[in-house]
Design goal:
This protein is of the alpha+beta class. The protein contains eight helices and six strands.
């Protein structure tokens, strides 16, 4: 599995898609509310992926990924003070672009239907922080004779139904998506400004739409 691509924007756009891909082949070995949530999403994604390729399947996949990822929380944590300085309109635009980047990358991976992966994922543990309504679902990825940790960080929003979470970060081989976004996006903002980052994201989206 590859979570890093040559270009920072290409890598960032695809990272969540690559991580979500593992949900389709995970083997449950641990159970608890957060793990049950991830497993249920895995089953739903698998069913969608195996539907006939077409507009309905694409729309269903987009809807499911939309409800699974907490883009606002990810952006807030990754961009820090830069996020706090943004206007509501700027935040909304960024979240929309980020969401579309993730969804298009994920959808493009399955344009021709489901594909058998050469790696397996095992749920191994979960940790829950009730005060902050956060949880971590820990897994191990078995690939090429080696095992690597892959952890999903979950958040239960205020008012969410019991057992309902969203994913706001993924840590693969000790590399956090939150940190990856920060290391790639923040330097662009610092050196070129916010408009330049938005333009780069839009340019990448234009490439993806052509594919």
């Amino acid at each position: 599995m590859t979570l890093r691509l040559a270009s920072p924007l290409r890598r960032l756009g695809a990272s969540f898609g690559a991580a979500l891909l593992t949900l389709l082949i995970a083997i449950p070995a641990f159970a608890g509310p957060p793990t049950d949530f991830v497993k249920a999403k895995s089953d739903k994604l698998f069913n969608i992926i195996n539907q006939p390729v077409g507009k309905e399947r694409t729309a269903a996949l987009k809807t499911e990924v939309h409800t699974l990822v907490d883009y606002e929380e990810l952006a807030k944590r990754a961009l820090g003070q830069h996020w706090e300085k943004r206007t509501p309109a700027e935040k909304q635009e960024f979240i929309g672009l980020l969401e579309e980047l993730v969804e298009l990358n994920y959808a493009n991976r399955f344009k021709s239907g489901s594909k058998e992966a050469s790696y397996k994922v095992r749920y191994t543990d979960e940790k829950v922080r009730e005060k902050t309504r956060q949880a971590i679902v820990k897994t191990m990825v078995d690939y090429g004779g080696e095992s690597t940790g892959l952890d999903y960080k979950l958040l239960q929003r205020e008012g969410a139904a019991p057992g309902e979470f969203t994913i706001y970060d993924v840590v693969f081989d000790d590399i956090s998506l939150e940190e990856t976004y920060r290391d790639s996006y923040v330097p662009i903002i610092d050196k070129e400004g916010w408009p330049s980052l938005i333009k780069r994201m839009k340019d990448r989206l234009a490439e993806l739409r052509k594919g």
